[in-house]
Amino acid sequence: MSEPVAFEVEGGVATITVQREKALNALNAETLDGLERAAQRLQRDGELRGAILIGAGEKAFVAGADLKALSQVTSVGPARGLARRGQSVLRQLEQSPVPLIACVNGYALGGGLELALACHMRYASANARVGLPEVGLGLIPGYGGTQRLTRLVGRGRATELIVTGNQLKADEAAAIGLVNRVFESRDALLAGARETLAVVATRGRLAVSLALESIDRGVDADLDAALAVEADLFGVALASDDAREGIGAFLEKRAPNF
Ligand code: CAA
User: Fold this and answer.
1) Are 151 and 226 part of one and the same domain?
2) pTM over 0.90
3) Which of 157, 178, 200 is the C-terminal boundary of a domain?
């Protein structure tokens, strides 16, 4: 039996693939465990420069939390625990020290869109469909959708998507900043993400991870607290060997070698 989540590394970039194609890659306990292991590898592997998250097949990124599993849960405590488990795994991915791009290759609905929202960037193929259909199931989003979508696209747009459960096509999602870029095919999508991560790989590794940390810790803080976080991390960056190399290379009119 194949792993629920594949983790392959090539040229310093990890490709994480949710592999439950028959259920449109819906997230059950095993896929969440697999995603947690992937997040731990991103934290651990000091050679990585970036990561891509995609769903197996042509049809779906991830079609949500597994509805068969959800149907078995009928009381508040276990239901809350289920949401907390998904939130915890997505938060671990969001705290990756290397940039993580969600390649939305088809349906990203419910927990699938929430998974993409926890990634640092979202690229989509032209056949992508994104939405939070939970209210049509008598639910609300439970893996961070009410919070991250609101922060990303603003309260009015997020509210409309959440209370209607409507799906957006890729270009509509791009128009409101929900996805960064749209590509014609799955292959072009992967190539586009790899191209971005190849640029990142030429930059200072520590600087990239400090920038991600500054964004993550600052985004929900008030501006003064967030600026203090940025100054602290800037201090770490400027005192680093990478800054010696990067600034030294500029002054010596050569390319840096991080
Ligand atoms: N959970 C479990 N199985 C799912 C699934 C899900 N979320 N989504 C799709 N599947 C399964 C289907 O049951 C079907 O399996 P069988 O062949 O064994 O019947 C298989 O995947 C293919 O799906 P469809 O036949 O439905 O494919 P389609 O092309 O007709 O429709 C779709 C595609 C529009 C994505 C449709 O599958 C669908 O609406 N899926 C559910 C999407 C959804 O509501 N997601 C939100 C879940 S709730 C949530 O995520 C809560 C949260 O915030 C944590």
Assistant:
1) no
2) yes
3) 200
